[in-house]
Amino acid sequence: MSRLLGRLLVLALLATGLAAGGPAQAREPAHTPARAVAAMQPGWNLGNTFDATGADETSWGNPRVTRELLAGIRAQGFKSIRIPVTWGQHQGPAPDHTIDPAYLARVREVVGWALDEGFYVMINIHHDSWQWINTMPTDHDNVLTRYNAVWTQVAAAFRDASPRLVLESVNEPQFSGSSGDAENYALLAELNAAFHRIVRGTGGGNATRLLVLPTLHTNADQGRLDALTAEFTALNDPNLIATVHYYGYWPFSVNVAGGYRFDATAQQEMLGTFQRLRDSLIGRGIPVILGEYGLLGFDRHTGTIEQGEKLKFFELFGQQARAAGVTTMLWDNGQHFDRAAGIWRDTELFVQIASSWRTRSGTAESDLLFVRRSAPVTARTITLNLNGTGFTHVRLGGATLRRGPDYQVAGDKLTLTSGLLKRLTKTQGYGVKASLSLRFSRGVPWRLDVVTFDTPQLSAATGATAGFALPAAFNGDRLATMTATYADGTNAGPHSWTPYKEFDRAFTPDYPAGTIKLTPEFFAEVTDGASVTLKFHFWSGEIVTYHVTRTGTAVSGTPA
């Protein structure tokens, strides 16, 4: 109990500033950290590489890092690179916790290459945060000793490195078994203070090296930001930078609970985050690096979130970061930049991200315009998100369409005429019939796919909980989300607090195979013998109902 009280007392002193002697902004040398942070924009993460918890940097599926890879990333316009490093599996036993010299040398080699390519480089302690650092509430002394051992060795190894090398104390700090946030804040303050003391104590370039301190969970909630601000005040060091991560409004980020659109709720969550960063850190003279950003659903598949919705997310994110003066580092575990081929897996997404570093782009309410095959074709109106730009024209391939006969514009409303849509959809079959390019006065064009469809048709099926796939004639439509309820109206399946299930985790469409797969994870939380009503919501606006029943490991399904 005395150790806990001592840590809480430290936190109280940090909060009042008694351990410091003045606000952080009054001590910062003119522009030095802020200029460095600005020079680091934009940044990229070498994810799932040295942070992998297996035997080496390839254990999570990425190739061995080459200098050519780093040069390729530099050529994409990135000015900084975050190299997450997990040290624990490469450490010897207590009391020395010696880092494997070969592993440390390999990290030094890649850091050296990155510095030689002109990058600012940030390295850290990464997945150790949940592997062993998180036990600090119940194993305080052993965790602190091991943590100190890592930074003692790493700081010494990089003592004379370029000042463009930046050190980050710990990734996404978290604690298990604590008494609550007060203790968590105190533990993190203790780790950050130890990191600061060790690095500064090695002298050389480390005496003034830029050091990056995270909030608890690298989360931008107000309490987390306030606690970190108190740490900056206490440490009284002008060469400190704050870091948080941003993966968006959680239901949108993973496509659950009906969050499949980048709607007003998801937008306001983003705007609120950046406002808190301005008020709590940036406005106090504390530079901020957003050390990771993206969407959590990308870890399963980048198609978990519909293309147009994620493009709108990244467009607004880039604008908010520019307005706030925050440096952003794209999380890339191999799902974005193909490290073997040296190309972006989704060029359209990267072009939108890169454009957002410089300017705004116009978008629209959707990138999909559905035209029913079995009904007369009529004019259609969509809402534009001008985002401060001006709408200019519409292109189809190399041709500019005619304002009047092909489309009309009134304010933020774009109407495509029936004559245009008839021409675009005259060929037989379902699917994308044309991709229109909506042009604005600046930024990247907005692609609008004209898609012919009819109501999807689902068929009866039997199968097993290990892999049930219901036959689906998608008829050109695309699946947005799925609800699952029992006959009494209560929610079925995982995330029982919402009827809307998680895309790619509870269900996933397989368009080439013509099926919708329901996962073992879904059936694991379905009552045996109870009929479940599934409603599949499609991007056209169609909703198709289906019933499934699990009996042991057997599953039967029928359309409504």
TrEMBL record:
It comes from the Bacteria. The keyword Hydrolase applies. Residues 454-558 form the Endoglucanase B carbohydrate binding domain. InterPro entries: Carbo-bd_X2, CBM46, GH, Glyco_hydro_5, Glyco_hydro_5_endoGlcnase_B, Glycosyl_hydrolase_5, Ig-like_fold, Ig_E-set. Residues 366-450 form the Carbohydrate binding X2 domain. Belongs to the glycosyl hydrolase 5 (cellulase A) family. This is Cellulase family glycosylhydrolase. It comes from Actinoplanes sandaracinus.
